[in-house]
């Protein structure tokens, strides 16, 4: 199965399958088909975080309906086993009624996160986990401009399935939902895509390159600094991280009515090249003190990239967002399934977005309609199960 | 830009870009990027019908709000020009506010169809086209089991954008909707995908290969017999065809609860191999007189493939369906965006599905919730516009 992304984006963290894929990029199609693209499931960290982004996601938040701690543990054990099997590329048992014969692993990753409600809900310690709630797993504060739908906000467990085949990603969520029957049910779900665009930074639905200043997943120092939970957090979370999800609607019709020069002012970067305003190359250092010909800041005070920049907020997060287009009656609904991983949401998303909300000029075109925060436990060893450290 | 499909599926009709793509499949990535995959827009037939299926569709049905024949003509002219530009791979004008710099053509095709309402609506001859309505453009009769939503049924103009990049396909619909402002608006929209699965027949969300017995788009005789409108129809439709669209919900949770052996009985084919029941190879001839060990028909009387077969209905249509997964609140909604092209719906879809509806055992798992029928005019020469023959 061909990856949708050129081999150069398969970085250090893609593991042996990724390196093999790179070596094969000019090789015979037969060899490609015989060596399915597999991301290792077991490891220090869960896959799907520092994994170079796959082309598609099928994301779902579940509400746990299990009534006992044992039932919840059982669910997590069944889910771990199923995720390990589906990501492996091994053929499924043909007697499985929900199997998908011939479905390629397509670099499938399945990443689980635990919401605040799993530790404590409406004052109840549902599963004896209240005392284990990580301090970094805060309840997100309200932000200026929030228009959150309760049905797409909160939830107990997040499942982020990503793959280079949309059907592989969807099948993972479908199978996990089936396995969960009686113990958990989907609260909300969202499919998303990235565009494959040669070797460049993918563009969002605003037409701008998105991710130029992102944390580099091939840089272990950056990941340890900004993403992985370490000695500052509970032992059960070391090697884990925290996910903030926002479903962000984009008013693309209104955006398309704005002149490109004004779009560039709002973003603070050039549309075609991706260069910072006043600059020439996408990856050049952003100099926020640069002035334009009239002596004003080249990057406006309310430009999106200025307010999001590390220099402004002191926060850096690993964004892993996907565009979505939902068809529907009377038109389409479109936007960004924003997913970002960080060592601590208090010093990550909350710090960054708290400064942007209400100030970022781009927010005239965006509406945050869904939200969630999840503690993402570390990876598991063979025979282990996701989250076991929190139950120990 | 890499195609999601192996070069072997780019058949005779893919044109020079397709053949070039095939020749390049083992070549250097740089050469690939320098030669974008383009499907020719101009020609005898509209592209997107006999074109080997791309990986993604963004489909929309528009209601025309223009009040005059001239305004409708103007819309069709603007849409034709925009579709020709977007499919060409030529860079868009950077001053265009809704441009998408760097967006690959990705074999984009845009296929337009005219619904009955364009010719006559509620007794009114809105655009002076009543007398030009092709006899084959019938109003679809009701079928057993129909659960059609009015908002997803009917409509004046269909736009089927297909590409190997979901963002390219969506951008086409987004741009056409913007260009239409004041003259047409989206009635309903649906995104869909096919799975890339090496060289094999793609599988639908039931896990079965889908399309084994489809009309071969590389066979001009089959296309002339079953798909293209010819001397039997009006001159303005020669080289055109007729599209029947059905939005078909699939109850995948219930399907996943059925044993594989029963799934195979319902479909009439083997799940893993795709072979006919009682047979061994996917592409072997279906022999409906074959008996099983107990002396019963190997393919049950109510099996899907028996009722759909040409031998049973005398009808053959060119199916070009896409799976869909719509996220949502409380779960996901999933199914098939069924699109089929035919010389005449009366001898095509109506004849075939009229026999299946109410009898096909698979219908216990499907719900037809959207529907439309459209006259798809022939292709246009450079300088022409889609549908001009009907206005002549």
Radius of gyration of chain A: 21 Å
Beta fraction of chain A: 15-25%
Counted up, domains of chain A total 1
Number of strands of chain A: 10
How would you summarize the topology of this molecule?
The structure is a homodimer of 392-residue chains.
Chain A: H1 15-23, H2 29-34, E1 56-64, H3 69-88, E2 109-114, H4 116-119, E3 157-163, H5 166-179, E4 184-193, H6 220-226, E5 241-250, H7 252-256, H8 260-267, H9 304-308, H10 310-313, E6 318-319, E7 322-326, E8 328-329, E9 333-342, H11 349-356, E10 366-376, H12 388-391
Antiparallel strand pairs in A: 1-3, 1-4, 2-3, 5-9, 5-10, 6-9, 7-9
Q: What does this protein look like?
A:
Chain A is an alpha+beta fold. Helices cover 24% and strands 18% of the residues of chain A. Chain A has one domain. In chain A, the strands form 2 sheets. In chain A, strands 5, 6, 7, 9 and 10 form a 5-stranded antiparallel beta sheet that branches. Chain A starts with 14 loop residues before the first helix and ends with a helix. Strand 8 of chain A pairs antiparallel with strand 4 (184-193) of chain B.
Give a quick summary of the entry.
Two copies of one chain form a homodimer. Chain A has 392 residues and is α+β, with helices and mostly antiparallel strands.
What descriptors fit this protein?
homodimer, alpha+beta, five-stranded antiparallel β-sheet, four-stranded antiparallel β-sheet, 18% strand, disordered N terminus
């Amino acid at each position: 199965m061909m990856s949708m992304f050129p081999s150069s984006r398969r970085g250090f963290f893609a593991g042996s399958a990724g390196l093999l894929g790179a070596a094969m990029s000019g090789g015979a199609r037969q060899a490609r088909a015989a060596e399915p693209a597999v991301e290792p499931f077991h490891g220090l960290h869960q896959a799907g975080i520092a994994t170079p982004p796959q082309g598609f996601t099928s994301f779902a938040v579940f509400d746990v309906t299990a009534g006992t701690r044992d039932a919840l543990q059982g669910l997590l054990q069944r889910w771990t086993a199923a995720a390990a099997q589906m990501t492996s590329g091994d053929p499924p048992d043909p007697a499985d009624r929900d199997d998908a014969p011939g479905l390629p692993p397509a670099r499938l990753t399945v990443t689980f996160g635990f919401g605040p409600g799993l530790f404590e809900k409406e004052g109840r310690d549902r599963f004896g986990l209240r005392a284990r709630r990580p301090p970094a797993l805060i309840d997100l504060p309200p932000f200026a401009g929030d228009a959150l739908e309760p049905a797409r906000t909160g939830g107990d467990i997040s499942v982020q399935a990503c793959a280079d085949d949309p059907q592989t990603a969807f099948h993972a969520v479908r199978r996990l939902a089936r396995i969960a029957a009686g113990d958990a049910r989907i609260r909300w779900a969202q499919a998303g895509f990235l565009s494959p665009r040669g070797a460049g930074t993918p563009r969002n639905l605003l037409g701008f390159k998105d991710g130029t200043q992102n944390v580099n997943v091939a840089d272990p120092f950056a990941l340890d600094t900004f993403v992985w939970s370490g000695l500052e957090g509970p032992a059960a979370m070391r090697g884990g991280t925290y996910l903030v999800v926002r479903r962000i609607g984009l008013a693309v019709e209104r955006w398309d009515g704005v002149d490109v020069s004004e779009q560039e002012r709002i973003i603070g970067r050039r549309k075609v090249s991706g260069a910072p305003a006043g600059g020439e190359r996408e990856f050049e250092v952003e100099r926020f003190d640069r002035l334009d010909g009239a002596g004003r800041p080249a990057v406006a005070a309310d430009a999106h990239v200025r307010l999001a920049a590390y220099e402004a907020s002191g926060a850096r997060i690993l964004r892993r967002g996907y565009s979505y287009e939902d068809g529907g009656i009377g038109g389409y609904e479109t936007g960004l399934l924003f997913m970002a991983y960080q060592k601590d949401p208090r010093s990550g998303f909350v710090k960054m977005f708290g400064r942007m909300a209400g100030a970022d000029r781009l927010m005239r075109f965006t509406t945050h309609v869904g939200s969630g925060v999840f503690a993402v436990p570390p990876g598991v060893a063979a025979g282990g199960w996701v989250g076991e450290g929190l139950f120990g």
